[in-house]
Amino acid sequence: MSTPKDIAQLFINARKKQGWSIEDVCNKSRIHPKVLKNIEAGIFDKLGPLYMKSFLKKYAGVLEMNVDEVIRRYEMLSVKEPAPVFNPTSDLPKETVKKVKKESMKVKDDVMLALQRKNIQTILTVVFSGVFVLLTFVFLGMLRSRIVSNFPKNDVKIESKKVKSQKSKADTKAQTVKIRSRKEKIKIEKKGTDVKKQKSEVKKTAVVPVTPPARLVLTLTANDKAWIQLTAGEKTIFSGILESGTSKTWRSDSDLTVWTGKAEKLEFTVNGNDLGKVADGVVKNITVSPEGVKIGKKWISHIE
């Protein structure tokens, strides 16, 4: 019978015959080096039998060993001899053995009788306790019915009447509260409608404020495309191109200053007075007021 070391030596001899190291076998078989070292050390109990068999088959196949012979030897390792069974009467004579058997049978019978007696006793105690509990419940129920029957019925009726009267009073109070709340709601709604009517009347009678007319109304009409910039004081109110054939009007409470690149293309109208063309070319300081148009300090068109 082979031992684990014998199987391990078979693998070591086969590997050395091939001239391989553990790393070479690991690269060829894809088996972990720890498993290979355990196999060559005769340690087969680190893994389960199924896994160990598969690794042994794979390793033996790579080393071109007899796989069936290796597995047969591994399986022989797991077969163990049965342990001897202890028989205390093997060395005794037959007569003493018979006596021992008889005594053991008597002991068994006594034990069985004792168990039966104990079982009977437990059953009787359970039955008696259940009957006692049932009788106590019946007695308590009868006692309760007697106590209830002895109570005076008149007092119960009077108390029920009192409770009913209290309920009716509470209901009437609740109804009166509801009626009051409804009346208050109606009053509030009437007040709201009156307020709304008053507001609507105030709105109707409110005087719309009349905006006073502007001090200066300037209209520029372009005969051709022209760029203009219009300022009121230091504020620029327009800067852009006025297209040909279009006109634009501005209203102001202060004087306006016009800056244009083509003054000859613009016609001026001040407060409804048509002043026509006022200058040529690029002009920066055309001042427009209700009195007329001037460039610098020179009046171009004066309105009387």
List keywords for this structure.
304 residues, alpha+beta, 434 Repressor (Amino-terminal Domain), Lipoxygenase-1, six-stranded antiparallel beta sheet, four-stranded antiparallel beta sheet, 19% strand, elongated
Question: What's the short story on this structure?
Answer:
This protein has 304 residues and is of the alpha+beta class.
What does this structure look like?
It is a single chain. With 304 residues, the chain is α+β, with helices and mostly antiparallel strands. Among the domains are: 4-78, lambda repressor-like DNA-binding domains (434 Repressor (Amino-terminal Domain)); 112-154; 216-302, Lipoxygenase-1 (Sandwich). It contains seven helices and ten strands. The protein has helices at 4-18, 22-29, 33-40, 49-62, 67-78, 94-150, 153-205; strands spanning 216-222, 226-232, 235-242, 247-252, 256-260, 266-270, 273-276, 283-289, 292-295, 298-302. A six-stranded antiparallel β-sheet has the order 3-2-5-8-9-10, with no helix packed on it. A hairpin with a 2-residue loop joins β9 and β10 (298-302). α4 (49-62) packs antiparallel against α5. The model is unreliable at 80-86, 154-158 and 202-208 (pLDDT under 50).
